[in-house]
Amino acid sequence: MRAIATHPAARGLNDDAAVLDVGGETLVLTHDTMVEGVHFLPEQDPADVAWKLVATNMSDLAPKGAQPLAVLLSYQLGRDDAAFLDGLQAALRHYGDAALLGGDTVRAPGPQSVGLTAIGRATHRPVPSRGGSAAGDALWITGPVGAAMLGFEALQAGTGDSSAYRRPSALLTEGQLLAPLVSAIMDVSDGVLLDASRMADASGVTIAIDRMAVPIATPEDRRDEALRWGDDYQLLFTLPAGVLPPCPAFRIGTVLQRQGAPILLDGAPVSGRLGYEHG
Amino acid sequence: MRAIATHPAARGLNDDAAVLDVGGETLVLTHDTMVEGVHFLPEQDPADVAWKLVATNMSDLAPKGAQPLAVLLSYQLGRDDAAFLDGLQAALRHYGDAALLGGDTVRAPGPQSVGLTAIGRATHRPVPSRGGSAAGDALWITGPVGAAMLGFEALQAGTGDSSAYRRPSALLTEGQLLAPLVSAIMDVSDGVLLDASRMADASGVTIAIDRMAVPIATPEDRRDEALRWGDDYQLLFTLPAGVLPPCPAFRIGTVLQRQGAPILLDGAPVSGRLGYEHG
């Protein structure tokens, strides 16, 4: 989105899930698209691709404290459509039986593109965003990062456990528990450093991260990579000082008044790539 | 969708827009995807592509009597993203200022794929469907078919008026006027014969169409083609005998008890292709 982010119509794309008040309810809406060769490997099991498509959308609902209601599918016919739909059904059942309400299918040349729109119901209002962190808050994360990186490597190597990459978990229950308490929250889809810097920018603060406090699923010598890899879908959030999270979580930093850089790692600005940048 | 229509998860894809009750309101939801080289020409103005993407989605809301609320965009970066977004903004403004709430952008090789999810609010309940026609009803259409065919030919030839193909109209106002009265209604996106046969199948009836009564935008010698071309987005609907439409419309047939064929044209079943079949 960087390429077109300056267009007034483009605000909000690739951002937090959207919020829409309807009747007496508040809906949370999101759409994610995945393309063969970009977001999944051509040889991957279509059922895994469908699972991940559902999980990434559910992970957009999670930081909003939303409960899934329904999805719409955009499906380019592919190698094994029945396997894809089996995976989709299984994933929807896993995430609270959100209904597949409709969508569109197309037959087209080129890499397969699949998209999903997910609609949820906010369980707490106001719906939290990534933009509410204040100086003095503590930064937390629900679990380790780097597992998807190891899973991706296992998938490419054809050996080892690739499930963290193929079938990530969206933390809907944790999101619903956290929504009433957090000052800011988002899912970590593009790397903890990059997503923390987005939270800092949206909140107008600087976030100081304690490098060794971030839980990682990798060997220690790969810590810097684990902090820059996405696809883990942990929840990153800030709580006012003294408030403890209602679910398992790790304290990894502190929110400061805005300084030059959006994030500090062990007290210093971070140079170079922070994580996965979208097209 | 024919290829995967037998999968239980696939019911409802490529069908009527979906209906979801939320917070005292009834939402109408739809998603359409358009692919370069399949649904639009590679050399088309991106602003026209955006306009058509909005119009096709709005045309799914129209037969539900829905008022547009919001859209989510799935956008593969292309040749001129600013032109696309300009066209999108103009079309959204045209259709009642539906808000672009969010979405996703991807950078990918291969033909450009763009998708839109549209969300509207039902103005009348129960929300009409294509499945309510009963023997004795009359079949109506809001206006001529074949204009998009001529527009497509003009666009390919590089001369003449191609606007009906490039910038179709979605009949939202007509849909809202019709919703309280119709027994069945749908938009004509794939050809009046094919869409009438779908209405007949969904309603469990046979629909007898008077070939010469169907208004066409083409010369008379192209009537049979005009009845099979899509993209005109007229509304096709049935009314109980004696009920007159509250908007301009043409009576083109009569609903009969189910016989062998879903539709009869001047009293005889139609052989061969009825219209545009999706992948």
Automatic annotation (TrEMBL), chains A, B:
Residues that hold Mg(2+) 1 according to the record: D32, D104
Residues annotated as binding Mg(2+) 5: D190
Pathway listed: Cofactor biosynthesis; thiamine diphosphate biosynthesis; thiamine diphosphate from thiamine phosphate: step 1/1
Binding site for Mg(2+) 3: D16, D60, D187
Every PurM-like C-terminal domain range: 135-240
InterPro entries reported in the protein's UniProt record: PurM-like_C_dom, PurM-like_C_sf, PurM-like_N, PurM-like_N_sf, ThiL-like
UniProt binding sites for Mg(2+) 2: D32, D60
Top EC class, one word: transferase
Keyword field contains NAD: no
Keywords for this protein: ATP-binding, Kinase, Magnesium, Metal-binding, Nucleotide-binding, Thiamine biosynthesis, Transferase
GO-annotated molecular function: ATP binding; magnesium ion binding; thiamine-phosphate kinase activity
Residues that coordinate or bind substrate: H39, D231, Y276
EC number: 2.7.4.16
Binding-site list for Mg(2+) 4: D16, T30, D60
PANTHER family: THIAMINE-MONOPHOSPHATE KINASE
Entry similarity comment: Belongs to the thiamine-monophosphate kinase family.
HAMAP family hit by this protein: TMP_kinase
Other facts noted in the record for this chain: Reaction mechanism of ThiL seems to utilize a direct, inline transfer of the gamma-phosphate of ATP to TMP rather than a phosphorylated enzyme intermediate.
Chain's role: Catalyzes the ATP-dependent phosphorylation of thiamine-monophosphate (TMP) to form thiamine-pyrophosphate (TPP), the active form of vitamin B1.
Name of the protein this chain belongs to: Thiamine-monophosphate kinase
Organism of derivation: Novosphingobium arvoryzae
Record gene name: thiL
